[in-house]
Amino acid sequence: MKRDLYFSKPLMNAAGSLGFVPDTRAGISLDSFGAFVTNPLSLRPRHPTAEPTVIEYQGGFLLHTGLPNPGIHAALKKYSAKWTRSELPIIVHLMADRPEETQHMVRMLETQENVMAVELGFAPLLANDILMLTLEMCLGEIPLIFSLPVEQVLSLGPRLIQDGAQAISVAAPRGALVNENKQVMTGRLLGPALFAQTLDTVQSAAKLGIPIIGAGGVWSKENADTMLSVGAMAVQVDAALWNPATNFI
Q1: Tens digit of pLDDT for each residue in 53-103?
Q2: Is the CB of residue 135 less than 8 Å from the CB of residue 106?
Q3: pTM for the structure as a whole
Q4: Whether domain 11-242 has CATH 3.20.20.70
Q5: Dihedral over Cα of 19, 14, 144, 84: its sign
């Protein structure tokens, strides 16, 4: 029987912001959160990129890490007991570029206690047909959240929801900037400059009836409240959590 997706509180961290398990030792209060989202996991281990990059620009920064992780098998051995003991429900974020591998990972997670949902993230420009196939192959007991760039939220989101996905979340956009060595680097874009675009996307998605989890540029409680006021079912916070002056309680 398929489980419902419900958040007791409408805030959570975004994938890639707080590690693989909730950790109070990090000095970040999670009291106002309704779920914890893990860093992205792949089927096989991934090493950090050879050139990790942070490049600032006005209103934000570009981040490139290579999404290092131990792989799903090692992650379950290391973290599943901590997920079970967590006071927060866990949403496991999976790197879902290959439907067969994604299906395998989702099935592994269906028996894990306290995993409330799986969030699926995809490589840039992956064809819509691949995303729809992934949904078809991964449908089961555990709720599926599709993390999409703003360009796909409105065009593909309704089809995904109609066919069984339980929510859409807004993925961090990608961009390119020149580093100090004059090399063009690509990566995720983070920072408050993104909020105007993501708020517009969230509002439009809500008007279409898409269960939408807002994200991107959420830099204050006021930003989060605004996203909720235009129809977001929940809001993800990313790099703002790394700022000690930020308070979302």
Answers
A1: 888 999 998 888 878 899 999 999 999 999 999 999 999 999 998 999 999
A2: no
A3: 0.94
A4: yes
A5: positive
